[in-house]
Amino acid sequence: MSRVKKGVNALKKRKNILKQVKGFRFGRSTKVRMAKDAIRHAGRSAFAHRRKKKKDFRRLFEVRINAAARLNGISYSKLIGALKKANIGLNRKVLSEMAMNSPASFTRVLTKVSK
Predict the structure, then answer these.
(1) Which end of the chain is more exposed for a tag (fewer CB within 10 A), N or C?
(2) What is the pLDDT averaged over residues 67-74?
(3) For the chain, what is the largest distance between any 2 Cα atoms, rounded to a whole number of angstroms?
(4) Nearest Cα to 19, choosing from 35, 40, 41?
(5) Cα angle: 97, vertex 102, 106; to 5 degrees
(6) CATH number of the domain that 106 lies in?
(7) What is the pTM of this model?
(8) What is the DSSP letter of 3?
(9) Could you give the CA distance from residue 25 to residue 29 in angstroms, rounded to a whole number?
């Protein structure tokens, strides 16, 4: 069996790893072992923060809805409960957009709920 030299593949692998950590500080941008650890850690954080972003936006929507609802004399929790009882299937994102951009239609939804 003939001998296989792995220089080209090893260099390609190292080059790809170091390309991913471009802009990182200190040894993480130049040393392969540290770079691998940095990539792994960054990937874990990116995965978690993609999930966290959804939670952050939901909290923002709730704050916006609560502010608009209190201007109309009802609390957030009572509004959401009333929406569920009235079988109105608007999600929090749509409600917050309505509260910000078209307060008149948001008020119409509130009057429909309060009946």
Answers:
(1) N
(2) 95
(3) 85
(4) 35
(5) 80
(6) 1.10.1900.20
(7) 0.75
(8) -
(9) 6
